[in-house]
Amino acid sequence: MAEHAAAVAHQFDDAEQQRGAAELGMWIFLATEVMFFGGMFTAFTAYRWLYPEAFTHASRHLDALLGGINTVVLIGSSLTMVLAVHGARHGHRRMLLVCLALTMLLGSVFLGVKAIEWSSKWEHGLVPGLHFTLTGADAGRQELFFFLYFAMTGVHALHLVIGICVVGVIFALAWRGHYSPEYHNPVEVSGLYWHFIDIVWIFLLPMLYLIGRHGA
Amino acid sequence: MARSAVPLYVAVFAALIVLTGVTVAVSYVDLGPASVVVALAIACVKAFLVLLFFMHLRESPGLTWVVALGGFFWLGILIALTMSDVLTRGWLPVGGP
Fold it and tell me: ipTM of this model?
């Protein structure tokens, strides 16, 4: 019982209320994140409607295979994250640590593939403003697609970098034995953040890579 | 008891991988305008699987559902009102300056 009391901050009645408050706080933050990414999703929807041909042509410059592989990598990282949370819930220290490490590893693999994609965009002159060499009637509209591509994948990658750092901190604290089945709110809450990054990518894959494969 | 949830997580993971394969494969088939609908429908199913099982929404209190769905509801307002402008611009022959 003393152990429970030590883990509950004084403003909470009990551990359950503390856990609920931490999780609800993260969900509210994620709702603001939906709106944050939502502005870019809305801009993409509007411009894709206005310039369908240019967006289709521009989308074909992206590598759907690399996009698909990265999706598998990120979904895999979500699995390891949820298994880490499972380990924390049931006091399996080794499972928690191994799964957190795998999550960071898979997140880094995703960023590595992303870096390969970005550098190939630079080589092909598809970086708006800095190095954009497409010519033709709809070059400006294709540049708009690549502006949105870099904005959305860039902000997504930034979230992933933050996520890897957060998981790193959780790993260090878990290593020192900060978490128990009674108290592991930070593990639960960083899991929510990680899965949200996964959901954003689940929508970016069809919007950027796949929808332009066919059609006018 | 301790490991009962693990097979469920692995099953959800497998479903997400299969759906990813389906959505990539379908993108190489010409479905016309329906391809957008199919791709986004698959993405919504995948997102819902992640929300329900990986983010434990299934076992969360009602207040969490309100916040989670509220985010997407307001996103719907943002897109619907913006597109109500963009989609209808050509409907009336109003001369520009």
Answer: 0.91
Q: Looking at this protein, which amino acid is placed at residue A195? A: H
C-alpha dihedral sign at B78, B79, B83, B84: negative
Upper half-sphere CA count for residue A69 (Cβ side, 13 Å): 12
Name the residue among A152, A132, A158, A130 with its Cα closest to residue A61: A132
Separation CA B19–CA B4 (nearest Å): 24
Stated as kind and residue range, the H or E segment containing A164 is: helix A139-175
Please indicate if any CB of chain B lies within 8 Å of the CB of A52: no
Interface mutation vs chain A, best among B55, B60, B67, B91, most A CBs within 10 Å: B55
Q: What is the pTM of this model?
A: 0.92
Which chain B residues in 30-89 lie under 8 Å from chain A, judged by CB atoms?
30-33, 35-36, 39-40, 42-43, 46-47, 50-51, 53-55, 60-61, 63-64, 67-68, 70-72, 74-75, 78-79, 82-83, 86-87
Alpha-carbon gap, residue B5 to A165, rounded angstroms? 27
Q: How does pLDDT run along chain B (97 residues), one tens digit per residue?
A: 445 799 999 999 999 999 999 999 998 888 877 888 999 999 999 999 999 999 999 999 999 999 999 999 999 999 999 999 999 988 877 766 6
CA A81 to chain centre: 12
